[in-house]
Every structure is written in structure tokens, then in C-alpha cells.
TrEMBL record:
Biased composition (Basic residues): 227-251
Top-level taxon of the source organism: Bacteria
Name of the protein in its database record: Putative RNA-binding Zn ribbon-like protein
InterPro entries associated with the record: ABATE, ABATE_dom_sf, Znf_CGNR
Ranges of compositional bias, category Low complexity: 186-197
Chain spans, region Disordered: 186-259
Residues annotated as domain Zinc finger CGNR: 141-183
Pfam family, one: ABATE
Amino acid sequence: MLSPRTLARLSSVAAFLNTAPGPRGGQEEPERFTAATQLPALVPELQEGEVRLRLAAAAAVRARELRERLTRVWALAATDEPAAVDAVNELLAEAGPLRLTAGGDVVGLAPAQVPADAVERLAAMAALALAETAMDGELARLRVCEGEDCANALVDASRNRSKRFCDEANCANRTHVRSYRARLAEAAEAAPATDPAGPEEAEAPEAVVDSEAPADEPLQETEKEKKERRKAQKKARKKAAKKAGKKKSDKKKSDKKKD
């Protein structure tokens, strides 16, 4: 299991990666890292003053380049561990000589000389966190959200490595609702035409609860989603009733012809 410090660092790195443009929580997001002054909020450990970062306009460009490299490591972590380790080694080499540090009950690694530049410090911090993750055999905990239209990076801190969705846009519940609606549609198509009441309403499954979702996050359908679901069910029943009525009418016509 990863140490709290490593988890905190990885979470900061994930937040930094998720500022890139792309699908985030079902929506296409633009570039959200527009200035180096955003770094302290994303990665508190940097402890860099905004004034100093504002003067270094080029820092934003270098930070985005670093973000691309870290995103690649994240993608490789779950699919190609050797390649991910090679990428981490490149970052470690750039961090320079390392030293052991002791804090509380934790012994870790740190650059022998702390870089003066915030982006370089971020690169070193990320490299060390990724190296410790690899040494603990936990690279598989670095994941990409499995929600539809979401490419957020996430850190699976669950005991059984079961976290599949990010917390940014309630992706777990969105996936659950979409799956439920798909089952309703399949049930409507497969319903017997002679049943005027239409298909029986599919049993609503239990809400998908992401093991790492915040405790106060409601994983339930919104009012809008409930209305849409009920509307779909009503439409399916009408469709089935119409089919049943047509079949009954055709049967009457057939009986009259026989008479």
C-alpha cells in the first residue's frame, strides 16, 4: 500500500494532468492550465509564490510539456509497466542526485539539491512519487476514468483496487443511469406485442457506489434524469399498446372476411 505522502503527491499530479483539454466528465473541456500561477493551487507542496511565477511566463509552456510526459507515464502504468518504468527513469535522471529523507515513520527520497525552478521541482516530485509507486508494485493504481467521455487521471487508493471512476463529475452514477436506460430500451423492444401494458419495468439496480467517492456525494438520479426515464417508460408502453391494438384490429378484419 502506498504511503500517505506518496498518495498525496500522486493526487496532486493527477489534478495537474486533468487540466489538459479533452473529455472530462462527459464534456469536452478546453485547456485549463493557462498560467504558471495556477501551480501552487494544483500542487500545494511546491510552495511557490504567485509573484515569482507570474514573472516566469515561460514556466507555463514548460509545465504543459511536463504534463504531456506525465500523462504518457499514467497511460503506460496499467498497460505496459516496463515502458512506464523507463519513462520514470528518464524523469529521475533529470532530477539529479538523490538523498534519503526521514520524516516521522517514513523514509523517502528527495533531490540532493532542491531545484529553484517550480516546474523542475514538480518534475522531481512527480518522478519520486512514481518511482516509489513502481518500487511498491502499485503502478496499476494509476488509472484513467472508465466513464464514457471522460479521460481524467485518477489514483486508486482503495484496498481492493476497485476504483474505476473519477470523482470530478459523478461518472460512476452517470454510467449506472446510462446502463439502466439501455436495459429499459432492450426490454421495450423485446416485449410481447399482445401485452397492452407494455414491458414490465426493469428492476432498478442498486446505485453504483464508487469506493473512493466522497461520502457526501449523492449517487442517485437527478430529477431531470427521473423525468427522462419515466418518459421513456411511458413511450414504450404506448408503443406496445399500439402494436397490440393493431394486431387485434387485423384479427377482426380477418374474421369478417371468413364470414
